[in-house]
Recover the amino acids of this structure.
């Protein structure tokens, strides 16, 4: 996770000042019986990617409860510009963290936690490191789903217990901590400096010079993002939202969990819903017989309106955070109304018509939709979207049971082209999964989108009911991103 962040000075100062104000409000609201202390909280370590989300949540809860107790919290986003991301990433697994970092930071203690899964469930191993070199306190705490706040409360109690055994921080240390939160790169003991003295540990050493954040040597070029992202995060995941990532000041993994962008991922959706409109079809098939010989054939075929179920899958790719493209392939269930009949012409020229309606036939149509989808809010858990594309709805030929003495014409299958558009809402509970609901409108075109005739017919025929010319779809489902 060794990503060096180049952040605009004004933005960093604004965000850090707001956090400092939150700390100040907490201090004033908390009981005066307990003094505020600066505490270093590196990002919680997770054993595998399965524990990543829990580790981020527990880290945030612990920092919030420390702030509520009136402490000044120096989290990873505050300390990383001074010591580097690599020095605090997976801190519990690094021999140098936090021991080698404490002399460089104006803090009284550090809290290190590692979240892992054991046979009994999730377990958090927590260590509280006093900055004065005192005894490191260790404890193992179970993490129950839905009661994560109890874990954070236990960690804060352990920190308070350790701080009570230490003298209060001098004013200089608190001022240095406030300057770090405000965005200044305060480093009490750079790695090349002479060994740390007791004066530095007690906060009596003179503050080091403030380093200008705008100095070119401290700001990585924009191209430095590539190749310095942690494992599991690629530059393609930032396409279209790199500015949002830089402004956030978060570690790349933390930002992915909170922003949940879709960029650089293949998408697979399973969806179900209903279609309202031209989802059924009808056909009237006729022949005429003169003197025992069959003379002509005729049929009319076209769409009919109904309300039927549908299902589909979608395969696509998101080249940008706010855009994805792909193909939807689905089945539109429907019915077919079919009548067959013949007209017999007698020797005197009179006619006799016989019509046989068939039971409703269950059928399906295949729908193929190349789509482009744009997200109006590309980051965050709720993402409204709009989409547009083409639709090609395919239906097969009719299956008619032929009598022994006649041959009915068979209405052939075809393709109904159309335009589709609509919108919906995607809810992302995690970076690689989403739940969505959408509404669509499809306008149908072409010869088979209306009544189609084959042959000529001079006798009576049922007047066809014109179709709607469109289909409205309502669908929901789940999206997976790889």
């Amino acid at each position: 996770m060794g990503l060096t962040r180049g952040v605009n000075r004004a933005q960093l100062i604004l965000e850090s000042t707001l956090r400092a104000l939150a700390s100040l409000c907490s201090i004033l609201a908390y009981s005066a019986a307990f003094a505020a202390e600066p505490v270093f909280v590196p990002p919680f370590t997770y054993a595998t990617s399965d524990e990543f989300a829990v580790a981020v949540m527990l880290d945030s809860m612990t920092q919030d409860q420390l702030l509520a107790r009136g402490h000044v919290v120096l989290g990873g986003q505050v300390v990383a510009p001074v010591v580097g991301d690599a020095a605090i990433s997976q801190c519990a697994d690094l021999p140098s963290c936090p021991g080698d970092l404490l002399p460089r930071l104006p803090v009284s203690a550090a809290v290190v936690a590692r979240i892992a899964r054991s046979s009994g469930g999730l377990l958090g191993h927590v260590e509280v490191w006093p900055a004065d070199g005192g005894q490191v306190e260790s404890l193992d705490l179970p993490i129950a789903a839905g009661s994560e706040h109890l874990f954070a409360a236990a960690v804060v109690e352990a920190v308070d217990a350790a701080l009570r055994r230490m003298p209060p921080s001098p004013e200089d240390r608190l001022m240095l901590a406030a300057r770090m939160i405000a965005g200044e790169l305060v480093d009490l003991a750079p790695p090349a400096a002479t060994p740390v003295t007791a004066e530095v540990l007690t906060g009596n050493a003179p503050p080091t010079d403030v380093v200008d954040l705008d100095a070119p040597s401290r700001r990585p070029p924009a191209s430095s993002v590539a190749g310095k992202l942690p494992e599991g995060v690629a530059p393609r995941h930032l396409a279209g939202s790199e500015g949002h990532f830089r402004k956030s000041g978060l570690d790349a993994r933390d930002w992915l969990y909170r922003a949940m962008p879709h960029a650089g991922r293949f998408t697979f959706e399973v969806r179900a819903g209903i279609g309202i409109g031209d989802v059924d079809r009808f056909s009237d098939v006729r022949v005429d017989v003169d003197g025992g010989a069959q003379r002509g054939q005729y049929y009319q075929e076209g769409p009919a309106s109904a309300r039927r179920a549908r299902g589909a899958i979608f395969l696509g790719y998101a080249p940008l955070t706010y855009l994805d493209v792909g193909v939807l392939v689905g089945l539109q269930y429907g019915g077919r109304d079919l009548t067959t009949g013949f007209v017999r012409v007698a020797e005197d020229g009179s006619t006799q018509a016989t019509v046989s309606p068939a039971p409703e036939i269950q059928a399906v149509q295949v729908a193929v939709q190349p789509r482009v989808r744009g997200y109006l809010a590309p980051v965050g858990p709720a993402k409204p979207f709009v989409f547009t594309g083409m639709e090609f709805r395919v239906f097969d030929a009719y299956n008619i049971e032929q009598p022994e003495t006649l041959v009915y014409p068979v209405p052939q299958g075809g393709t109904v082209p159309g335009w589709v558009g609509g919108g919906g809402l995607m809810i992302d509970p995690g970076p690689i999964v989403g739940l969505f609901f959408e509404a669509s409108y499809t306008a149908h075109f072409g010869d088979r989108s209306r009544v189609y005739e084959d042959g000529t017919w001079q006798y009576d025929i049922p007047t066809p009911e014109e179709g709607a010319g469109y289909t409205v779809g309502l669908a929901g489902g789940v999206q997976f991103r790889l």
Notes: The first strand starts at residue 38 and ends at 41. The chain is about 20% helix and 40% strand. The CA atoms of residues 68 and 183 lie 22 Å apart.
